[in-house]
Amino acid sequence: MPDLDRRLAYANRSTEQDLKDKGISVEVNWTTPWANEALLTSITAFRDWKAITGIDFDYSGADIMYRPAQEDYSLAQFENFSQEFRLTGTSDRLDWMVGMFYSDEDLTRNDSYFMGPAYEPYLSTLVGSQVLGAMAAQLAPLGLTVNTANPATFLSQVTGRPFGTNYTGIGAHDVYSQNAKSAAIFTNNTFHVTDALDVTVGLRYTREKKSLQADFSNPNGSTACGAVLGNPAARVGGALAQRINGFASLPAALQQQLLGQLVPAIAPQVTANMCLPWANALHDGRSTRQERTEKEWSGTVKVAYDFADDIMGYVSAARGYKSGGFNLDRVQGATAADPRPWMPLTDDTSFPGEFVDSYELGLKTTWADGNLLLNAALFHQEYEDFQLNSFLGTAFVVRSIPKVTSQGVEAEVMWQPAISGLMLQSGFTYAKTEYGDDLLPDPDLVRLPGNQMSFAPRWSGNVSATYEWDIGERLLGRFNIGAKYMSEYNTGSDLDLEKLQDAYTLLNARIGFGRQDKRWMVEFWGQNLTDETYKQVGIDAPIQAGSWNAYLGAPRTYGMTLRMRY
Prior knowledge:
It is built from five helices and 25 strands. The protein is mainly β and 566 residues long.
């Protein structure tokens, strides 16, 4: 088992990042002379986020595959403009709000895969060892032997090209340009039926249109893949013949019989590995355009009743919606109609919108003259076409899961005891969140049906204490300590057992000093004080069967923060 506490990472290529984030937001509020002086609010915002990131794809000391931190080859950029108008008002029995929203977002992504000098010998050794070993076992009963030495040259035997020239330079260089325009009208209204009974109704209509232009290229021509695609059976068969000792001296009929038995099973495996998405010559020069338009309703209904001045119960039902979109990646793979793993090249990379029907029954209470708050709720949520975001080690891909169900209970308590300045808080959640029983076509997701959802612990909780005290007439001090608990959960979207994270607790604390009017404050803080090692996400190591990697949470960290208000 790997020792995660070593926090050992390998990289022979730069993993530097260049992040730029800027934006502006303007809010204007006007008390109108209409509808009992209704308030008109306008919020205008612009945001520009840009990231250039270097990646060592193989996460090892070998120079296999990487992406340089250069804008032309590694860029993710969002530019978003949004405008919202809200009109809110009130009367004796009604609090109302109507509004409209518009946004226009441009997404640009430059994607690339560079082949290091170790790519060819590594991939050839990986594929060659499997193929030649299996072939040797199959031919041994016939008295034939196989030359399994130096499998690093196996792929060059398949292509007929000199070793070291099959995979070089830029394998894939793709550009994605997406535009999303979204418009919505909405309303939210609370009817005060009686002094104790409130009914809230909210409704939203959303129209969203997305378009994606994708341009694919293989600057290095993907020579290895191109060579084998011309005639996979002949290319692989020729390489196998070179590896069977004494093959040339065998009768021609026996030669044909042997290759007829070996090639049909081995050629697809070899070709698929030689034509992985970033090296598939069939992508070179492709351009695709996709569009999708969604028009959906969402909303909520809530009934709240005050049983007493300090006890309120409520029940709610809501229909939520998250728009669909496109995966910005090369897609290929076998289907029932075409079982070749390197085909077909899929132009449709879309995934549908996600819907959730949620129901909640809750109670909010106040005790001890307002110094103690106890709240609790039961919840049930059913997701349709849940958007599972999966990190494959080289890219993020959204997969649509037909059904996910989450149900449980949550509670929280806030207590201000007799000690002046002291506040205690705690809360817990029990959530049984499971994938539906539907079988999924993706072979990587065979473990999902009926099991606990990825990144979803059954139990979670927190507890904290905050104490404030005066220092003289103008200054104050503040101390906070808190702990967060998570029961075990799986950090992989495929639920591989290796990605299971055991239960853990994080302990954080901070102490600060500043002015009582909070004009400024200096805080000294520590995160993860017990130096807990835990996985945030686990992934299969790219092109490394049987290996996996994990992105770990931050270790024990200390710092200082200065806050100022003007």
